[in-house]
Amino acid sequence: MSDCIFCKIANGEVPTDFLFEDGNVVAFRDLNPQAPTHVLIVPKAHYANIADGVPAEVLKSMADAVEAVAEAEGVRDSGFRCIMNTGAAAGQTVMHLHMHVLGGAPLGEGLL
Ligand code: 5GP
Ligand code: ZN
């Protein structure tokens, strides 16, 4: 996807500091953080969302990234939230699969 910003970031075309990287995914800070920790976990390959035939090895890498980021950010024990907005009606604005990892402050209750 040549015009996809997360493809460009994940594949190094847009220089970005990665908090985690393996063969399948990268993790980097959100441009507009909603909490002290707000990291995005993004596959290197383009999937529209979590319901787009994502291979098991990519899902495993996403889980590995969550664990590494939570540990590095110091929220692994205190608690954090993982969100995948899926589709426009759910608030997805970048149509390349990504998981938000939020923490470092009380996040409240409710849908999100
Ligand atoms: P969504 O609403 O699709 O679930 O979340 C997209 C997220 O990507 C938003 O939180 C937005 O701030 C973030 N974002 C959009 N463009 C960029 C970018 O170029 N760099 C970074 N680091 N984050 C971005
Ligand atoms: Zn993409």
TrEMBL record:
Transmembrane segments: none annotated. Residues 5-112 form the HIT domain. Gene3D superfamilies: HIT-like. A motif (Histidine triad motif) lies at residues 96-100. It comes from the Bacteria. Pfam families: HIT (PF01230). This is HIT domain-containing protein. It comes from Paratractidigestivibacter faecalis.
